[in-house]
């Protein structure tokens, strides 16, 4: 009984190894082992990726039919013109990307601030300050001020956040976000010992 178990285990192991080899062959196909060994395992990603644009292989029939006289410089000039067009198109595309965009609405700004508060507190701080400066009396102004405070905390500028909280309490004394900021930054400041 013990011998039969050993034989069955050996056969099962052999089947698993064969199945693994077949799976590896299906994944890697017919890549020769010497080709895989020559590639450096820690080569930069750009070196391992295929180029985005591969030049077309030369057409043998076109070379046989075209004379090497005055048509060669004309073909080179045409190629140069297409490259110039490609560059000008790229410049136009870049100009379109850097063109001034319409201003964001308050709702769009608040959505941006909410999405980027923890990931990019520096950008959040800049946008919140700009939005708060544009219209400090808007209904969303306390929200922008709250994002200023939260961004300062995210950047570890606790003293500036406390100063901004005091200013927010003067501007919007009855707003719930002012009370929230006071509770977190003035009543129980960061680094103080809790009772």
Question: Which helices and strands, and how do they pair?
Answer:
Layout: H1 2-28, H2 33-38, H3 45-48, H4 60-65, H5 71-98, H6 106-116, H7 121-134, H8 141-154, H9 158-171, H10 176-187
Helix pairs in contact: 6-7, 7-8, 8-9, 9-10
Architecture overview:
- It is a single chain.
- This protein is mostly helical and 195 residues long.
- The chain has a domain at 106-187: Alpha Horseshoe (Serine Threonine Protein Phosphatase 5, Tetratricopeptide repeat).
- Helices cover 70% and strands 0% of the residues.
- The chain is built from ten helices and no strands.
- It has helices spanning 2-28, 33-38, 45-48, 60-65, 71-98, 106-116, 121-134, 141-154, 158-171, 176-187.
- Helix 9 packs antiparallel against helix 10 (176-187).
- The chain is elongated.
- It starts with a helix and ends in an 8-residue tail after the last helix.
- The relative contact order is 0.05.
- Residues 35-55 have low confidence and may be disordered.
Brief characterization of the structure:
The chain is mainly alpha-helical and 195 residues long.
Distance between the termini: 71 Å
CATH C-level class of the domain at 106-187: Mainly Alpha
- Beta percentage is under 5%
How large is the radius of gyration?
Answer: 33 Å
Order of helices and strands: HHHHHHHHHH
Quantity of strands, as a count: 0
Q: Estimate the mean pLDDT confidence.
A: 74
- CATH superfamily of the domain at 106-187, please? Tetratricopeptide repeat domain
Fraction of residues in helices? Answer: 55-70%
Q: What is the CATH fold-level name of the domain at 106-187? A: Serine Threonine Protein Phosphatase 5, Tetratricopeptide repeat
What structural class do the secondary elements suggest? mainly alpha
Described by strand count, sense and barrel closure, the largest sheet is:
none
Going by CATH, the architecture of the domain at 106-187 would be: Alpha Horseshoe
Specify the overall morphology.
elongated
Task: Tell me the quaternary state.
Answer: single chain
Q: Provide the low-confidence segments as ranges.
A: 35-55
């Amino acid at each position: 009984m013990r011998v039969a178990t050993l034989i069955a285990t050996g056969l099962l192991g052999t089947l698993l190894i064969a199945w693994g080899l077949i799976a590896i062959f299906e994944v890697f196909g017919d890549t020769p082992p010497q080709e895989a060994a020559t590639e450096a395992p820690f080569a930069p990603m750009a070196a391992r990726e295929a180029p985005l644009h591969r030049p077309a292989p030369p057409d043998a029939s076109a070379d046989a039919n075209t004379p090497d006289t005055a048509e060669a410089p004309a073909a080179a000039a045409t190629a140069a013109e297409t490259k110039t067009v490609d560059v000008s198109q790229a410049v136009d595309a870049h100009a379109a990307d850097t063109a001034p965009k319409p201003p964001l609405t308050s709702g769009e700004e608040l959505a941006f601030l909410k999405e980027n508060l923890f990931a990019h507190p520096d950008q959040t701080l800049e946008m919140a300050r700009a939005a708060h400066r544009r219209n400090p009396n808007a209904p969303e102004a306390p929200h922008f001020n709250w994002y200023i405070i939260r961004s300062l905390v995210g950047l570890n500028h606790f003293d500036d956040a406390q100063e901004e909280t005091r200013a927010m309490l003067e501007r919007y004394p009855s707003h719930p976000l002012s009370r929230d900021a006071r509770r977190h930054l003035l009543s129980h400041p960061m680094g103080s010992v809790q009772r």
